[in-house]
Design goal:
three-stranded antiparallel β-sheet; 10 strands; seven-stranded mixed β-sheet; 289 residues; alpha+beta
């Protein structure tokens, strides 16, 4: 039930400790509170898992990107503080869970980009997330750019001074949580996590900023998949397929210990991909310390 102080997209956190109560007033902007975390993930088990998964699959293949998206959503489910956001000086627990990313319609300089928005539920599995990603990419490349792109196109057709006034007014409404949900539908700025797969265009992982617009508090950059030297416990070096992930987070929504355990869980899930075949709310058989 919605209570006084709740937003259309989140419930007000009423029992925050003193430090987390004060931080949004001392550091009001999300862009002023970015923390950056990088992690290298061993993909040996993941690539073997995908090879078996795609062996008899003649349709849309399972990919490392889909494993990353599913692992992120599972981590959000099991570590719910990650699915919080701060706006207008208050912290909220998001009502829904989602991942957004851009889709290049064609790999050409002049090609447009579309926005994909994946809504997830606790009962989702790798298979259902795979299907949702396929539908989003298919619809975007077929011609749609997503609800957010269609809304932006409306402003583009207005005289600049009118569009500027309306955008500023909407930003004021957005800060106070009174924007119509229809205006934020499909907007990546309102997703739990935004992700970009730079590896798909041959680039390394790196840092990406957050935005003061919307409620998004986590941005993940996925780099190119390649073999890297790993040193085992015996001191021997071995070349292992791996991927770098860069996470930019709003450090106000959780402390360093919580983030540390969450990133370890994300890495553990990707290095044990069979765990992603169960429901998102299904706890792994082994937890990280």
């Amino acid at each position: 039930m919605r209570r006084l102080g709740d937003r259309f997209d989140g419930k007000l956190i009423r029992d925050v400790d003193a430090i987390h109560f004060l931080m949004p007033f001392i550091y009001p902007g999300r862009c002023d509170n970015e923390g950056y975390i990088s992690e290298t993930v061993d993909l040996t088990a993941a690539l073997d898992f995908l090879e078996k998964k795609n062996k008899d699959n003649d349709g849309y293949h399972y990919t490392v990107f889909q494993l990353v998206v599913t692992a992120i959503l599972k981590t959000l489910t099991l570590r719910p503080q990650l699915n919080r956001f701060i706006t207008n000086g208050s912290m909220y627990q998001r009502n829904n869970m989602s991942v957004s990313f851009t889709v290049k319609k064609k790999f050409e300089d002049s090609s447009d980009e579309g926005l994909a928005f994946i809504d997830a539920v606790r009962a989702d599995t790798l298979d259902s997330i795979h299907e949702k990603i396929y539908r989003q990419i298919y619809e975007t490349r077929k011609g749609g750019g997503g609800d957010a792109v269609e809304t932006i196109d409306i402003f583009q057709k207005m005289p600049r001074f009118i569009g500027r006034f309306i955008v500023r007014f909407i930003c004021w409404l957005e800060r106070h949580g009174i924007v119509f949900p229809s205006l934020t539908k499909g907007d990546p700025g309102y997703s739990s996590v935004m992700i970009t797969n730079l590896g798909s265009i041959g680039m390394k992982s790196g840092y990406h900023h957050l935005s003061n617009w919307g409620t998004n508090s986590i941005f993940v950059v996925m780099g190119i998949i390649k073999k890297r030297p790993f040193i085992n416990e015996k001191g021997k070096t071995k070349m292992i397929p791996s991927v770098d992930l860069g996470l930019t987070v709003d450090e106000r929504i959780a402390d360093g210990y919580y983030y540390s355990r969450s990133v370890k869980l994300l890495k553990y899930l990707l290095e044990h991909p069979d765990l992603l075949e169960g429901r998102l709310d299904e706890k792994p058989r082994k937890t990280t310390k």
